Amino acid sequence: MSSPIANIGHYPVSSGFSQHRVHPITGKVRRHQGVDFRMPPGTPVLAAGDGVVHTGHQEHGAGNFLSVDHGGEAATRYMHLERFAVEDGQAVRRGDVIGYSGNSGGSTGPHLHFEVWRGGEAVDPQRDPLTQLGGPGPGGHGLSAVAAAATSPASPDAAGGRQHQGAIAAPAPLRGVFAAAEARHGLPPGMLTAVASVESNFNSNAVSSAGAQGMFGIMPGTAKDLGVANPFDPREAAEGAASKLAADYEKFGNWNHAVMAYNAGPHRIEEALAGRGKPLKQETLDYLPKVANAFQQVNRGT
Prior knowledge:
Elements: E1 13-15, E2 18-22, E3 29-32, E4 35-38, E5 44-46, E6 51-58, E7 63-71, E8 74-84, E9 91-92, E10 97-101, E11 111-118, E12 121-123, E13 162-164, E14 167-169, H1 172-185, H2 191-200, H3 220-226, H4 234-252, H5 255-264, H6 266-273, H7 282-300
Antiparallel strand pairs: 1-4, 2-3, 4-11, 5-10, 6-7, 6-9, 7-8, 8-10, 8-11, 11-12, 13-14
Helix pairs in contact: 1-4, 2-7, 4-5, 5-6, 5-7
């Protein structure tokens, strides 16, 4: 999914996702199941993904609102609109204008209330890895929006990687190799270190239960596609991993999605962004916060 507003960084968040928010009108403590963006009335609102629109109206609640059913138990909701740009039951594509922001219903000022639902539960749009609402990460690479959800750093590794005191570094003999591969393929500095840390904790002999091999966790079929003859050679694997991440970034234009594609494959991420297919595995949803957290620690230590 993508942002419900073009240039979303221009519109401040007036109220975030919360389990316990004091309602600005009633004064009661209630769950706030989405994010409010303050903006002038009439700002175009965009479909966050492909799907079918359902429209509605509540005089004292959501006002003019609509939802987009993306399939696969995924949906997005858009509330307090000035007017609709689509009809009930209409099929839309990601990025289509579906309405215009307003101040309808129970509202204290012009804004858009945006919700993301997965499996019948509202999730925080600013922490949902498939919704591009978070700000850019270190160096503007879009890797920090969900880093706060990651687990704590891994323990030190005997293979020579360093993970302590809030910093991660690759084994000394490989730091120049990683940096050169990142430069060749246009990756943010530290990306390969973060991925290798999460995939194997810098273990070049690692083999996962699914069959992923080497320091960068490359599956045999993927290694063949990338021209990696020996995924257990960290230098060769680093080049292949950099090539794959760069290709996925070119496809999605977003490092968050490129990292998720490294784990699940680009086709699966394309389906999820369009709201099609089965929900992503928890492994993939957990993978991005882990890499984002590692990426921040790598840059903290440089």
